Amino acid sequence: MTKPKLTIILFLYLIIIFLFVIRNLKFVIPQNFLILGLDPRNDLLEKTQTTDTIIYANISPKYDSVKLFSLPRDLWFYQKSIKINQIYPDTFENIQNSFSQIIGQNIDKIIVVTTQNLNEIADLIGGIDVYLETELKDVQYPNQAYIDNPKSGAPIYKTIYYPVGINHLDSSNITEYVRSRKSSELASNGGTDLGRIARQQKLFDVLFTKIIKTRNPKQIFNLYQYFNNNISHNITKKDYLNLGIKILPNINKLKLQKITIPTGENPKTDIIYHPQKFINRQWVFITSTPDHQSLKNFISKSLLY
Q1: I want to staple 145 with a disulfide (CB 3.0 to 4.6 A). Which of 38, 39, 154, 226 is the partner?
Q2: Which residues pair with 58 in a beta bridge?
Q3: Cα dihedral 221, 225, 230, 231 sign
């Protein structure tokens, strides 16, 4: 047998061994992710570093679905006597421990996405199209022209409007869509935190779906590079490899499921509800017990299906 043929056979043999080993390895793969949407503000109208969007994402054991749970930012965390949107900023380890106490699931990894990140990601994938069943109109949206130069004569607030139907979102308007919380007094029309949560769930659903369906190698590489260089997280290269090995074979079947946590004002029917009173002089949501057991049970049962 000639040397070139022997080399080829040896190479193929090594590939077979490698694939066999990879297939049978027991990987430690992250399944529980906490996604924090941060809208850092330091201007005349608002100064804050708290998180506006809080999403618990679970990858199923078969790696064929991702379940998303949005938590209202005003949910009261009894152990620290703060709203959960005030848990950040802190060390990732402390954040993971705090949210694990709240939802009853170990948080493996954290991803912090700022509004600027959201703008740039949307542009990287060519924007997204979101369908609105009711119009979104906010006549008290903070005017960036005034924030940039209060002496310019620009009004403090401006009106933003998204009609019923398909709305294309990119860096020019996605921040306003996410931030707006005064569009209506009724949650069903998109106003208040409940309406904003529903809007954000819809946006992330469309955003994640478009990213997952991306098949353009250059776009995938650009997203990977952007994620690593611009977004705060604690996902390692080993995590990427392990997730890729498990998820890529099922990528065409991967489904996103939005799980809505019953939230409102009725403690008999809602898992998370407003207690009709202030706590520490703050408007909050609570669960029926300080240990959040009803919320933990709801999430645990939802992960079974």
Answers
A1: 154
A2: 32, 67
A3: positive
d(CA 35, CA 233) in angstroms, rounded, equals 9
pLDDT at 305 (0 to 100): 77
Pick the CATH number of 115-230 from 1.10.1040.10, 3.40.50.1220, 3.40.630.190, 3.40.190.10: 3.40.630.190
pTM of the model: 0.82
Is the distance from CB of 92 to CB of 70 less than 8 angstroms?
Answer: no
pLDDT tens digits for range 134-191: 888 889 888 888 888 888 889 999 999 999 999 999 999 998 898 787 766 445 554 5
141/149 Cα distance (integer angstroms): 16
CATH architecture label of 38-113+239-305:
2-Layer Sandwich (3.30)
* Tally of CB atoms within 10 A around 126: 12
Task: Please provide the average confidence, as pLDDT, over all residues in the chain.
Answer: 84
Q: Of 121, 96, 99, which is closest to residue 110 (Cα–Cα)?
A: 96
Look at residues 258, 257, 221 and name the one whose alpha carbon lies nearest to residue 240: 221
Structure-token pair, residue 172: 């020019």
The tokens describing 286, both together, are 């609570």
